[in-house]
Amino acid sequence: xxxxLETEYKLLVTxxxxxxxxxxxxxxxxxxxxxxxxxxxxxxxxxxxxxxRIREKENKFLFTLKTPDPDGHLEHECFxxxxxxxxxxxPSIKKLLNELGIHDEIVMITNLRTxxxxxxxxxAELCFDINEYNGITDYEIxxxxxxxxxxxxxxxxxxxxxxxxxxENCPSKIARAMSQL
Length: 181
Description:
Helices cover 21% and strands 45% of the residues.
């Protein structure tokens, strides 16, 4: 299990704004991925402000449990063999859930399909996401730090090229997908 602190900024934008900023990075490739979100029937993880998913991308399955941290989210990740309830019986995942007091049955909550292009800036990943869930399509730009720096300032400099400015307008993908259930 790999643990790391995730610090990211997200901005929901219109399709036109997305295309404008995206056009400034012509050598990108969009790759599909599917996020399947899990919790207990009574949403114990959500009550703890946690989110758990298995992401399928290029025939690989990445388990992620995000837990709150004062500086962002702590991500606990490991590759698993499949996208199914069975993976929650794996010892390292079961231990992690037990540490959070989660002992009840895990169920699938919702799916979200993302078509993503990632630009590595050397200090962050700039992600262009087209998200589809429950008949909705939205457009999101993420800026995830990979090195220590003033992320908001740098993200705003990138966004300014398309006349955009960062503001906290973007609930998480799981929150958006669940709001449409």
